[in-house]
């Protein structure tokens, strides 16, 4: 389908949170996401962009009873997982040790203030670097 509309799509991952203001602050201060000011009409929704990445964002949805994690993990692909992990630790984010899962792929996990699981991924050398993910 997307090949039929090459200039008319984007990807937004929805994350349910308990307190929109606290969550916006956390994603902004801890991860460096930028609030998109065009999404302020609905008090329960904020959309945040990842600097330098077009057509991809996260949407924070305030819910009194956020869904529990069903196994999904929104993952940030990074060039150097050890450096990314150290940066998060310096920002007081608890991050799991890096796990080499085989084939050159490394993963680490952390949670936001609502317990939503997030991940870091370092691709194998034969896989695309972060700035080429999605370019095919």
Automatic annotation (TrEMBL):
<dbReference type="Pfam" id="PF00903">
    <property type="entry name" value="Glyoxalase"/>
</dbReference>
<dbReference type="InterPro" id="IPR029068">
    <property type="entry name" value="Glyas_Bleomycin-R_OHBP_Dase"/>
</dbReference>
<dbReference type="InterPro" id="IPR037523">
    <property type="entry name" value="VOC_core"/>
</dbReference>
<dbReference type="InterPro" id="IPR004360">
    <property type="entry name" value="Glyas_Fos-R_dOase_dom"/>
</dbReference>
<protein>
    <submittedName>
        <fullName>VOC family protein</fullName>
    </submittedName>
</protein>
<feature type="domain" description="VOC">
    <location>
        <begin position="8"/>
        <end position="123"/>
    </location>
</feature>
